[in-house]
Amino acid sequence: MGEQVNPFDEASSVADNPKTASIGSSVIPIVNRLQDIFAPLGGSFPKINLPQVAVIGSQSSGKSSVLEALVGRDFLPRGSDICTRRPLVLQLEHRPRRPNTDDDREWGEFLHLPEKRFYDFSAIRREIQAETEREAGTNKGVSDKQIRLKISSPNVLNITLVDLPGMTKVPVGDQPSDIEARIRTMIMSYIKHETCVILAVSPANSDLATSDALQMARAADPAGSRTIGVITKLDIMDRGTDARNFLLGRVIPLRLGYIGVVNRSQEDINQDWSIVEALNYEENFFHNHPVYHGLSDQCGIPQLANKLNKILEQHIRTVLPRLKAELNSQMVAVVKEIRTYGEDIESKAEQGAVLLNILTRFCKAFSHMLDGRSREMSTTELSGGARIHYIFESIFVKSLEEVDPCDGFTDKDIQTAIENATGPKDALFVPDEPFEVLIRRQIARLLDPSLQCLRFVYEELIKMSRACEATEMQRFPVLRRSVDEVMGKFLCDGVKPAERMIANIVEMEMDYINTSHPNFLSGSKAVELAMQHLKSTKGSRPQLNNDKPPSSGNSTGRTSGISSLFGGSESRISSGGSSSSKSFGEPMHDVVHLPTTVQLREPPALLRLSGVHTEQQELEIIVIKLLLRSYYDIVRKKIQDFVPKAIMHFLVNHTKRNLLSTFIQKLYRENLFEEMLHVQDDTVVKRKRTREMFQVLQQAVQTLEEVDSEVTSRSSISSSSIDTATGLPKIQGLSSPIYTTSNSDISSHTPSLNSFKSHRLLHSWE
Question: GTP-binding: present as a keyword of the record (predicted)?
Answer without folding.
Answer: yes
